[in-house]
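Reopening this one. Same input as before:
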Amino acid sequence: MDLKFTFGGASPDHHDHGDAPSGIPLPFSTTPAISTSSVLELRVRRSAETPGALLGEVVTGDGVVYTSAEVTARGADPAGLAAAARSAMSRAIAGLEGPLAESVESVALDLGGGEVEALAALGIVAPVSDLFMVDAALQRRVGVSEGTPIRIGA
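Same output, byte for byte:
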């Protein structure tokens, strides 16, 4: 929806509004960003705005953020980061409508170090070097399908 306002010139109230020409549109737009990508990724990273917080976001392949949630970490230890990351994931997914949670194709975890330890605290270990996947427990807690790959780093 585009909103256009005009000021000046001939007005229906027949008052003189100066020499401003009639019908000058102002550039207001309430149109949200539209994604052309069908790829959804769940990202968890440290918040740039709030020290000690993690930000969970569901982002399309072309960078449109569908939902986001900020969670304060309970500590810098792996268990505290794991709990905050899981909470940020869960809250970001909860903001999606309908079956979009099942459409998430990957998870990106960027905690500035300690990602592997945080995943281990969640009970997720890589059967092959650096190949992490959402397990049944995380699926129940967060809503992302079991077997969804988890990428470490940005």
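So the earlier flakiness isn't reproducible anymore. For the record, Helices lie at 78-94, 115-121, 136-142.
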